[in-house]
Amino acid sequence: MYDxxxxxxxxxxxxxxxxxxxxxxxxxxxxxxxxxxTSKAWCVRRVGSAVFLKWGAVEVYGAGDGRKxxxxxxxxxxxxxxxxxxxxKDYAKAAIAxxxxxxxxxxxxxxxxxxxxxxxGAELEQALATILFVDIVRxxxxxxxxxxxxxxxxxxxxxxxxxxELKISRGKEVVTTGDxxxxxxxxxxxxxxxxxxxxxxVRTLGLEIRVGLHTGEYKVSGNEVFGLAFHIGARVAAKAxxxxxxxxxxxxxxxxxxxxxxxxRGVHQLKGVPERWRLYRVEP
Length: 284
Hints:
CATH architecture of the largest domain: 2-Layer Sandwich
Radius of gyration: 20 Å
CATH class of the largest domain: Alpha Beta
Helix content: 25-40%
Largest sheet: 8 strands, mixed
Order of helices and strands: EEEEEEEHEEEHHEEHEEHEHEE
CATH topology of the largest domain: Alpha-Beta Plaits
Shape: globular
Number of domains: 2
Low-confidence stretches: 1-20, 28-35
Number of strands: 17
Mean pLDDT: 79
Structural class: alpha+beta
Distance between the termini: 48 Å
């Protein structure tokens, strides 16, 4: 299944043909001649006075013009109704310009939705874990200041440091997204201690990160994972300030005997999550 195309419509309501969304692939530390990595893609398309957006994590296979790009999970979609055609043109132009200035490159061709092997006898397994999300604060500004060559070196050291701490803590890396990473842990205390260790390790590279942790159930199918718990973890991370490690109440409630200290950061509405969650900052 491929990225959809939308018909362009004249003011009289008649369709004048189907055109694919302009697509942009985040480069990060990966150049177009590198295969087998996870990145992020955006699609932007204007139809009349509306702008259609689609974005999400993608897997990239192959190199150069022969690359195959697949959505890792079904992408998020959003429709912006601008009221007038001119406003929609301005919005789309600005959205495309932002992609080009934030280390994205134009992507030709379609983005497929990865098909899972058909195994009707297999059921999704239920799992419980502490989920960690980490990403770099103000990474775009740092990349622009350092330049591509130096930034690539910094990012290689960054991922090496993160993975070293994951190995020490026996965390399981799930996916990387540009300058971010998602991992799971069997115990919340282990995840929190790993998060603080990662924070200190990457500071030696001149980087500040934000980290969010949540404990919850999710589904497992082979090497793939699904569930609201991952979305909650990502939204907790988005609430963190530079250098902060934030946890949801689900994590904090399981750690009364851990010796780790927390500071209440109040109740927050997490974007796209139906419930409000109390968050806590991990204290030094």
